[in-house]
Amino acid sequence: MNQIHSFSLTPHTYQPTTIIFTSKDLLNNIKILQWNCRGIRGKLPFLQHICQNLDILCLQDTLLYPHSTFRINAFQSIRKDSEQPGQRGICILIKNNLIFNHVDTSALQHPSVEIQGVSIDYSEDKEQLIILNIYRHPNLHTPQIWFEDISRLFTTAKKILIVGDFNAHHTAWGGSKTDRVSRMLLNAMDNVQAYIVNDGKPTLLTAPGTNRSVIDITIASADLAVACEVITEEDTGDSDHFSVNISIGGSFSFRHVLYN
């Protein structure tokens, strides 16, 4: 049975318990996708097709409710459904051969943000890969302290990946404009070893001639950033967002880090 562990903002207090793969087995081969799917139930055939070569999928804007039926073959589904007006729903799909723990993100809850997390122990030394999946509502205010709180996670573990639709625009990662939310995000990451590793391509489908929008962001700790290859796909899968593929490890000789 998967266990639930608390995420603490105090460094070095988050304790892993499950050993499954060596670093070579997992972190040199793991493939992750993040995607604002804009409703998941009508996109099952597309998801079933693309997940064949993936280990983990982090989905936002699922529009799933507690009574909704949803299943992808060969994957476990960790859902945080829409339970109140205005919520969009998020979901992490994890391949059945991976053993994971839930991360308690209650310290990071805010009305403007939907957030969930999982951790995977990948070595005999109980090193962790922590993944957070986030959807930030574009029309709600998120305070600076929330960004500061989430940045502290990078002081508690070496290998952290934060993905999601932040609805934050900045020219540093390929957008056509810079807004207040993105400045708060970058200010919070300024004093920690965290890097935005997007490839600079738009993640939101917009009309020709309009602003480039890169709002689906991938943030990696220093240990992961040098080993990540991030590719924004060209198919929206009937969403208005392009999916983003993240490959960790392999034989990549260079990683382009956009901002830290």
Characterise this structure.
The N and C termini lie far apart (37 Å). This protein has 5 helices and 13 strands. Helix 3 links the parallel strand 8 (128-136) and strand 9 (159-165). It has helices at 23-26, 44-50, 144-151, 180-189, 222-225, and strands spanning 4-6, 31-36, 56-60, 75-80, 90-95, 101-104, 113-121, 128-136, 159-165, 194-196, 216-221, 228-232, 244-248. It has a 7-stranded mixed beta sheet with strand order 1-6-7-8-9-11-10. It is globular, with a radius of gyration of 17 Å. Helix 3 runs parallel beside helix 4 (180-189). With 260 residues, it is an alpha+beta fold. Helices cover 13% and strands 28% of the residues. Residues 1-25 and 251-258 have low confidence and may be disordered.
Strand order of the largest sheet: 1-6-7-8-9-11-10
Which strand-content bin applies to the residues?
Answer: 25-35%
Outline:
globular
**How would a textbook summarize the main sheet?**
7 strands, mixed
